[in-house]
Amino acid sequence: MVINDFMDKKMPRAILCTLLIMLPLFSVDNQLNLWELYILVTIYIAIQYLRDFVMQVNLYSRKGLFFLIGQLILLSVIMTIDQSFISQVYLLILIGEMVYHQSLYYSIPFAITSYVAFVTGKWIAFDFPPFSTMSFIIPRITEFLVIMAFSYLVKVSISQKQQLENAYEKMKTTSLKLEEKIIIQERKRFAREMHDSIGHSFSTSLIGLNAVQKLIEKEPKEAMKLLKHIHENLETGLYKVRKSVRELQDSHFFVDFQNAVEALLEETIQQTDVEIDVKINVEEKWMNPLQEIVVYRALQEGLTNGLRHGKATMFMFRLFAEDNSLVFYLSDNGKGFKNNDNTLGFGLIAMKERVEELNGEISLHSNDSHLGGVDIVIKLPRMDSNINKVQSIG
Questions:
Q1: pLDDT number for residue 185
Q2: How far apart are CA 394 and CA 367, in angstroms?
Q3: Chain center to CA of 304
Q4: Higher-pLDDT residue of 305, 91
Q5: Rounded distance, CA 284 to CA 361, Å?
Q6: pLDDT tens digits for 107-117?
Q7: Alpha-carbon distance 40 to 34, whole Å?
Q8: 109 three-class SS
Q9: 301, 347 in Cβ contact below 8 A?
Q10: What domains can be seen in the chain, in order of their start residue?
Q11: Rg of the chain in Å (alpha carbons)
């Protein structure tokens, strides 16, 4: 987005400044028609200004194409008067704009026409000299080819970056929706647990208390008997509340952890078209809720960094139990990074903190990674199922 903003908003200013700075240079050479030349070049710069800052013409459109062709025609006339090569710079800038904003279907003929106009214009400007004295112009075609190639490479690079940014935003949005869905499912499950475990006890107790109010004056013995029954019923309800809360604390954060991970991987593949080799070999109840969160967040962060910063196209993900430890392994074929903590971003630092809170170990390798990019290896010790003493790290 930053590069696009520069090309579409700031580049026109840079081009206009370049054209204005070079304007006085026409008078350095001995020009036979200096005033006519200055009038035409001033008109050309005025058209450039009107195009970009007054009319704000979209150069990607058909209207933009016609403006570029019109400017080429005017430059062709200017080159028949200009007895220097300053107008060639104007022409090369125009070719760069054409290649960047239009397809090769239009850009290649435009560049060929520009070169022919340049050669013809110089031939006319120098009063039709014999070819032997004009042969030095022919090798200047390399300048046209270089500008074309450079402009096209910039265009492709920005397009790929934009596609990657769009894929990242889609993955981020999908991931947030997935988390929201999981939270909603957990809230529903919690509501069902509360309703099923204590709803009946509290409802019957309230009804009983209403009956006690009516009996307490007329039949105090019956009221006391009923009150004792309500007391026992409330104690049972309180026990069920504590039991439900404990069970919810001990249950997994995800409704189905493996399905949540598979959904994250599948959405990443669909949105970014990357390859992910996955092998998960962990028993369903091996991990506790905190370990599930660490694994899920680490996978999220690793995929995001590999795509956004490393421009990875392939990942390998492994999750398995080994020597009473949970092993998380994620490798990508991206650009990698320097192996020191100073290069770690907020996401990786947060990942390290989560792992260390569970007394785990994390290592990141870039120089000797499996797929050539970054390897993330996390080892978490097997934890007691009682996690009340550990703070939430979600």
A1: 67
A2: 31
A3: 8
A4: 91
A5: 22
A6: 999 999 999 99
A7: 10
A8: helix
A9: yes
A10: 2-129 (no CATH), 171-250 (1.20.5), 257-381 (3.30.565.10)
A11: 36
Q: In terms of Cα–Cα distance, which of 149, 69, 78, 71 is closest to 118?
A: 78
Residue pair 305/208 in contact (Cβ under 8 Å)? The answer is: no
Q: Is the pLDDT of residue 327 over 60?
A: yes
Question: What is the percent of the chain with per-residue pLDDT over 70, rounded to a whole number?
Answer: 81
From CA 35, how far away is CA 41, in angstroms rounded? 10
> Token pair 């214009």 is at which residue?
121
And the tokens for 41? 């070049």
Whether 67 contacts 97, CB under 8 Å: no
Residue 204 has pLDDT above 70, yes or no: no
d(CA 310, CA 333): 8
Q: pTM here?
A: 0.51
* Cα angle, residue 270 at apex, residues 266 and 274 outer, rounded to 5°: 90
Name 379's bridge partners: 327, 361
- Side-chain-side CA neighbours of 239 within 13 Å: the count stands at 6
8-state DSSP, 56 = -
Polymer length in residues for the chain: 394
- Residue 299 CB neighbours (<10 A): 22
Residue 86's identity, in one-letter code, is I
Measured CA to CA, the distance from residue 73 to residue 40 in angstroms comes to: 12
User: Residue 37: CB partners within 8 Å, gap ≥ 6?
Assistant: 26, 31, 78, 81, 82
CB 336 within 8 A of CB 372: yes
Strand order of the sheet with strand 375-381? 275-281, 314-322, 325-332, 375-381, 361-365
Amino acid at 36: E
Given a cut of 90, whether residue 231 has pLDDT beyond it is no
Helix (H, G, I), strand (E, B) or coil at 381: strand
B/e letters for 308-325, b = 16+ CB within 10 Å, e = fewer, are: bbbebbbbbbebeeeeee
**Of residues 16 and 164, more confidently modeled:** 16
Residue 296 main-chain phi, psi, to 5 deg: -65, -45
Look at residue 390 and tell me whether its pLDDT is greater than 50: no
Q: Which of 274, 350, 286, 346 is nearest to 312 (CA)?
A: 274
Give the pLDDT mean for 142-160.
88
